[in-house]
Amino acid sequence: MGKRKRESANLKKEARKEVSFAKLRNIPSSPRKMRLVADMVRGVEVFKALGLLHFSNKAAAADVEKLLKSAISNWEQKNAKKAESGQLYIKTITVDCAPMLKRLRPAPQGRAYRIRKRSNHVTLYVDTINTKDA
Is 94 exposed, middle or buried, given 0-12, 13-18 or 19+ CB atoms closer than 10 A? Predict the structure, then answer.
């Protein structure tokens, strides 16, 4: 690894230490369904988002709620203090496609239809509200 590339990698690593995040990978639901839930909580204060997710009718909301609790716990571990109401917000939440399982379903006249079982990856970043105002 060259000097310039190493310095760039170290800068990225230092920037990542300041931010708390959580990842959930290979969730067996389509990315489109998960994005509906992600859009619902993007930019919202974390405890309000937990309430929204807990009482949502969407099945994907349970996975995002689990992920959000993990991100809050990660922030508490990094900063060595408890998260208070109105202190944290969801900075970014991204939903990406994961590998697809391809299956075949019997069809008339000896044919077959392809079934694509989609899955996704979700990444959630949590930050303090003070840095948002600044």
Answer: middle
